[in-house]
Automatic annotation (TrEMBL):
Species per Swiss-Prot/TrEMBL record: Macleaya cordata
Protein name in the entry: Ubiquitin-conjugating enzyme
Regions that span the bilayer: 353-372
GO molecular function (one): ubiquitin conjugating enzyme activity
UniProt-annotated stretches for the region Disordered: 46-81
UBC core domain ranges (all copies): 82-243
Source domain of life: Eukaryota
Keywords, ordered alphabetically: Membrane, Transferase, Transmembrane, Transmembrane helix, Ubl conjugation pathway
Length: 373
């Protein structure tokens, strides 16, 4: 009963703000409303269990959570009661200590579940991307770490994050590590897991996360080139993940995903253009990217596989961002012009090929006629 009261008190603050807003003058009420629409870094969702509600369209549904159906309502409720005090402690740690780049949602009806999103850091091939993770506290928590699932959409963009959603991390006991790196029931926390994923997994050189590649000391130039090539593939997959999230945002993060990409659309497209032009390496700062513009401009024929892939991604992102509500008129015109130029070049190349084939056939026919005469 004491734990239940504690959970209610965490939510009361939002209710108090609403009551004060209703009593405020009209102008002040509008200002409060704008503030309340800001997406909180940590929040408790007043969910209704789908087994009781039987409504797939219910806004408070959590049936898209990876671990939602992993246990029945009765069994999950039983272990929630046993673990509630420990889970409440995790909630307080998260509410008070989350960095600006991580957002978390927990669920009133299923306190064993949690969902988090990490914003990819600048200076990495994950910059400006969103990476979602579903957590479940086991029945014997904290003796065992939480289960964690990564929303990959079928893309493997990190050695530690599999396309089936598996997360390999020593802290989760899903990867080897020293005793200090493993889960410690008396010290480890969900916050520590999230920070580890952000710093150790979604880093600037993820290729070296591969087993045996982290301590390379010879032929470094070669391995750094391999790492840079890997970063290019990672960014393309990160762009694909952006498109997947815009098409199907995780529940209770729909507003966040939409607003985030409206805010970051132009920054993402500027980076894409710099990568297509070869002016900067993936993940590097774009501040000095214009200094090499004249020497790195590439033609359609000489573009690399990465640049061609980014050209395709760029067009798809422009369309998706506009559909999401971004104002990108300049990019639309530029994108159409770019497509027309490339189409013209391809058509010209095809025309030349046809012309040479015709000349060859003509010469061949004349040769045959001369030979028989």
């Amino acid at each position: 009963m004491e734990d239940h009261q504690e959970m209610i008190e965490i939510r009361v603050e939002g209710g108090r703000a609403e009551a004060e807003a209703d009593a405020a003058p009209e102008k002040e009420k509008n200002e409060v409303t704008v503030i309340r629409r800001e997406f909180k870094q940590f929040d408790i969702i007043p969910t209704v269990d789908d087994d009781e509600n039987n409504s797939n369209t219910n806004n408070s549904s959590i049936n898209d959570h990876h671990y939602y159906a992993s246990s029945s309502s009765s069994s999950s409720n039983q272990h929630q009661i046993r673990n509630s005090k420990k889970i409440m402690k995790e909630w307080k740690i998260l509410e008070q200590n989350l960095p600006d780049s991580i957002y978390v949602r927990v669920y009133e009806a299923r306190i064993d579940l949690l969902r988090a999103v990490i914003i990819g850091a600048a200076g990495t091939p994950y910059h400006d991307g969103l990476f979602f993770f579903d957590f479940q506290f086991p029945s014997d928590y904290p003796n065992k770490p939480p289960k964690v699932y990564y929303h990959s959409f079928g893309y493997r963009l990190n050695p530690n994050l599999y396309d089936d959603g598996k997360v390999c991390l020593s802290l989760l006991n899903t990867w080897s590590g020293t005793k200090n790196e493993k889960w410690n029931p008396s010290e480890s926390s969900v916050l520590q897991i999230l920070l580890s994923i952000q710093a150790l997994v979604l880093n600037s050189k993820p290729y070296f996360n591969e087993p045996g590649y982290g301590n390379i000391t010879t032929n470094l130039d070669y391995w750094n080139r391999v790492s840079l090539a890997y970063n290019k593939d990672v960014f393309v997959l990160s762009c694909r993940t952006m498109l997947a999230l815009l098409n199907r945002p995780p529940k209770h993060f729909e507003e966040f995903v939409g607003q985030y990409f409206r805010d970051r659309a132009e920054t993402i497209l500027i980076a894409c253009k710099a990568y297509i032009g070869g002016r900067v390496r993936v993940g590097d700062s774009l501040e000095n990217s214009t200094t090499t513009t004249t020497t790195t401009t590439t033609t359609v024929a000489s573009k690399t596989k990465f640049q061609n892939s980014m050209g395709i991604m760029y067009s798809k992102l422009v369309k998706a961002f506009i559909k999401n509500g971004s104002s990108l008129e300049n990019y639309v015109g530029e994108n159409m012009a770019k497509n027309q130029v490339e189409s013209h070049l391809h058509e010209t190349k095809a025309g030349r090929i046809v012309c040479w084939v015709c000349i060859f056939l003509l010469v061949f026919s004349v040769g045959i006629l001369i030979f028989y005469h």
